[in-house]
Amino acid sequence: MLNLPPWQRSLTPAFGVPAPGQYRAQPEDFIVDEQLDFTPEAHGEHLWLRLEKRNQTTLDMVKQLSRLCGVTPRDIGYSGMKDRVAVARQWLSVHLPGRDAPADLSASLAALGVTVLEQARHPRKLKRGVHRTNHFTLRLSGEAVQSADFCRAGKRSAPRACPTISAISALAQGRATYSVPPPCWRKAGASATTGRA
């Protein structure tokens, strides 16, 4: 085994050793809320479900929904992947042409630790990247949150990185919230400034 010296942080000479802190010690420390830009149309072959899950990935939910609804994983749609160690609220769709969802679907999901927040029918499958934004709530704890440097850094840099951050109240509680839109994929030859070809 190699005996290497510890890595030196590049900012330590200028700012000193950072105070210790914790991030994502439990799922409630990181909340992700997927926001759509539209509402399901209330009719169609696809059942759209807005679910709240803890300690489960999106692909875990796809497997569970396909088993509970008797469909293949290809029949399940989702807009984005969500973290495992988080409280994640997201939409998923299940292709159920000509049939209703299982009567005990909400109860079966609740037994797995998943809450059904909303459900509605829609004519189309939920496609990747169609959500408007993800709203994040982060909770930090430990000595780092109490330090004056943390408050100064948050007030100075966070609003530029995350325009909708409510830094002052969030820093007082060790929590920050911000929204991030899904990635914009440019077509080949697109202009870097307009995103149009």
Largest sheet: 8 strands, mixed
Overall pLDDT: 78
Q: Would you report the number of β strands?
A: 8
Q: Termini separation (Å)?
A: 53 Å
| Gyration radius over CA | 21 Å
Q: How does the helix and strand content classify structurally?
A: alpha+beta
- Bin the strand percentage: 25-35%
How would the global form be characterised? elongated
- Uncertain stretches of 5 or more adjacent residues: 152-174, 184-197
- The percent of residues in helical segments reads 10-25%
Count of runs of 4 or more consecutive helical residues: 6
Run of helices and strands: HEEEHEEHEEHHHE
Explain the overall architecture.
This protein is of the alpha+beta class and 197 residues long. Helix content is 24%, strand content 26%. Strands 1, 2, 3, 4, 5, 6, 7 and 8 form an eight-stranded mixed β-sheet that branches. α5 runs antiparallel to α6. The longest helix has 14 residues.
Summary of the model, kept short:
The chain has 6 helices and 8 strands. With 197 residues, it is of the alpha+beta class.
